[in-house]
């Protein structure tokens, strides 16, 4: 990962942060940092992820709708991204290790578009999923990233790469 890496975020990065370690009431600085790094063109997510997050109808959906600018969730309606998405889907479908249900789920969710966006624009995918070459019930994002030469990382390594720190202060 280069010092000027650009990151594209999976839905689980938002969901797990909000539900656990960076809940809005515990660490508002995380969410402010996300917006600041977006403003400096270092991170974003994609339109399909936005749709998944809004479907949650919770505090995270409220943040997506009310605090995140529309530009935070990049449009994937681009011919280059679409070509990569087609290649990713062909690869997934050609893998006998994945169950038919896993292939169908991957095709229906934002995961393929996320990797296609990263591949087309040279971004690093940020996900909490881990590579698993033997998995059958799911198509892990890192497996697809490995097959297509796309870098991936987790939330904490992304924050380190962005030199993000959260400090306690008494109010």
Primary descriptors:
171 residues, alpha/beta, 5-stranded parallel β-sheet, 9 helices, 5 strands
Task: Record the SSE blueprint.
Blueprint: E1 7-9, H1 11-19, H2 28-39, E2 43-46, H3 47-54, H4 59-66, E3 73-74, H5 79-94, H6 100-108, H7 111-121, E4 124-126, H8 141-148, E5 152-153, H9 155-161
Parallel strand pairs: 1-2, 1-4, 2-3, 4-5
Helix pairs in contact: 5-7, 7-8
Give me the side-by-side strand order of the main sheet.
Answer: 3-2-1-4-5
Beta-strand percentage? 5-15%
CATH superfamily: 5'-nuclease
Give the tally of β-strands: 5
Overall pLDDT metric: 95
The level 1 CATH classification is Alpha Beta
What fold name goes in the CATH topology slot? Rossmann fold
Give the CA-based shape.
globular
The helix content, as a percent range, equals 40-55%
CATH architecture: 3-Layer(aba) Sandwich
Structural class: alpha/beta
What is the terminal separation in angstroms?
37 Å
């Amino acid at each position: 990962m280069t010092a000027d890496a650009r990151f594209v975020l999976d839905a689980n990065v938002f969901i797990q942060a909000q539900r656990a370690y960076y809940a809005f009431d515990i660490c508002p600085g995380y969410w402010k940092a996300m917006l600041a790094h977006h403003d400096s063109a270092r991170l974003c997510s994609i339109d399909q992820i936005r749709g998944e997050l809004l479907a949650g109808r919770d505090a995270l959906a409220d943040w997506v709708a009310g605090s995140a600018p529309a530009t935070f969730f990049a449009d994937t309606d681009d011919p280059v991204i679409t070509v990569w998405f087609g290649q990713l889907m062909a690869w997934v479908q050609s893998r006998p290790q994945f169950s038919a249900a896993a292939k169908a789920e991957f095709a229906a969710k934002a995961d393929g578009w996320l990797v296609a966006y990263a591949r087309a624009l040279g971004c690093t995918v940020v996900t909490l999923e881990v590579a698993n070459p033997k998995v059958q019930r799911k198509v892990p994002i890192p497996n697809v990233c490995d097959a297509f030469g796309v870098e991936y990382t987790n939330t904490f390594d992304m924050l380190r790469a962005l030199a993000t720190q959260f400090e306690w202060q008494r109010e």
